[in-house]
Here is the input.
Amino acid sequence: MNASGVLGALPEHVVRLASYGLAAVVTKTFTEKPREGYGPPIILRLRNGGYINAVGLANPGVESLPQVVRKGKELGLVTIVSVGGSSLDEFVKVSTTALEAGADMIELNLGCPHTKGYGLDVGSDPANVYEVVKAVSSVSRVPVIAKLGFSDNYVKSSGKALEGGARALTLINTVRAMVIDVYSAKPILTNVFGGMSGPPIHPIAVKVVYDVYREYEPEIVGVGGVTDWVSAAELILAGAKALQVGSALTAKPREVVNSILEGLREWVAELGYERIEDLVGLAHKR
Ligand SMILES: Cc1cc2nc3c(=O)[nH]c(=O)nc-3n(C[C@H](O)[C@H](O)[C@H](O)COP(=O)(O)O)c2cc1C
Here is the structure.
């Protein structure tokens, strides 16, 4: 799947995502009201090969969501709606709209690290995670996935999400980080800090997936720095059953998706297995 955020706020984005060869598409996180997000600069490439962004959950709001979902369904795609909220009520309202529009799954954004009152501000408190997941699960007839970020509480929050009814966990969102311009001596991002993505966070994602799998053996969607089949394979071995790619889809997305799939196919065969599922969490069995 694509990771929520870079595309997926408009029907035309879904058309583009559909051409990448993905098994499912994930929308941008939708909130109840439209959000403009922060002013530029909101994203930049880092010298370590990653990105840092503080977009501020810019999205057109829940009124525009049905068209996005309908476009995904029209194209025959499994369509997962990323839902944001700063209150239980907002999470439930956006989820209800997603369900009415025909979403195949809901992914709750409990991990965005740079938007006050949203994402990690909710998801780093295990009790909040439980409340949100429970409230949405109780109104949803489709699977609810909790997407969490990197915080001190990620194992506990994962447990609470599962207890609240999450069918799977998406791990991880971007990791809090910042950059300073050495000539102006000022933080570069308008929001001062943002979330880092891409290759530098991959080993962190591997560790989070590994820890959570060891504790609960849930179904995990691994995300963070996947650029090629090796980085994908590591997350699978740590415990991920499905994968999302975000930053690496910014250039030559079709080639990236293809080479990951091809590489994984060869890798599974070379190790003498038949299905990827046989390799999920294999790093734990020693
Ligand atoms: C520009 C940008 C916008 C993002 N927006 C969202 C978002 O709206 N909702 C969300 O859950 N994650 C969002 N993310 C996080 C990604 O979905 C993903 O968890 C993170 O980038 C790590 O994956 P990657 O290293 O493959 O990019 C965003 C990431 C980037 C770079």
Remarks:
- The longest helix spans residues 253-270.
- DSSP finds nine helices and 13 strands in the chain.
- The mean pLDDT is 96.
